[in-house]
Design brief:
14 strands, 2 domains, Rossmann fold, 3-stranded mixed sheet
Amino acid sequence: MKVLVTGGAGYIGSHAVREFRDAGHDVLVLDDLSAGHSTAVPPGVKFVEGDLADRDALRQALEGVATVVHFAGVLNVGESVVEPLKYWRINLQKGVVLLEAMAEAGVSRIIFSSTCATYGVPRAVPIDESHPQEPINPYGESKRAFERALRDLATAGVLRAVSLRYFNASGCHPDGSLGEDHHPEIHLIPLAIDAALGRRPALTVFGDDYDTPDGTCIRDYIHVQDLALAHVLALSALEGGEPYRFYNLGTETGHSVREVIVAVEKVTGKKVPHQIGPRRPGDPPRLVASAAKIRGELGFRPRHTGLEGIVETALVWRREHPQGYGSAS
């Protein structure tokens, strides 16, 4: 099957491209490289540098495509609070351009990279898919809006769609070839590793007064390769049944910021210098998935479930690529 992966040069997208390729699919990557890296695209995979707003580039990229896997977007919760227009423009407006181009090209299948941020502050934990979607930041709002566009188009018979609501993507490819290279880095595990290795100043913990056992936020950390494999499984959900489906992607286990720091210290053998800062706007106290639906319907079971093991894969990448894709140790 020919698959177009938007944002396929990014962190999660590049891992998914690898899994689609290894599963025997013909993969094409479209990425504007605003956050991605061309060197993250595996050998043998066609890469087109282009923006979702470029209708000509989309028209060419969609030729012969059976399914679109849509990763392209922006994802910094804190930034979305201070720059909401950016999130509506990129995550929704450009996404609609993609949907229009798909309709024109006769492409009627899409898998969407969504987020648990669409749930907002959970009423109960773990969170299952029946939980109301009540985002508390523009990032989550923009993702929910695109999900609703997919739902409406599916109801109208225009397409079939699957939305995958990620919890916290983490880790790197176990063979060390693909990793996390953001500028600036915003994710806790790589920030804590870099602090332990002396590559950055002390880590800031955003609040220690939440209603959690140790006062810091709790998140469900799911390995990026498991996320990638779930997208391959999601292809089967496009074959029949409900025209619009949505699934949580998580491990069903939560870890606090302090627990992540301890895990990084164990794996690196070094202390993680850190300081307590104010709460970050838009952060719920705890986000932990129920993954029963995707387990029952698609047979999804994460293979990387231990926090220290996830940290180990991230450490391998950061040691071998101290400056990201632009360098190797």
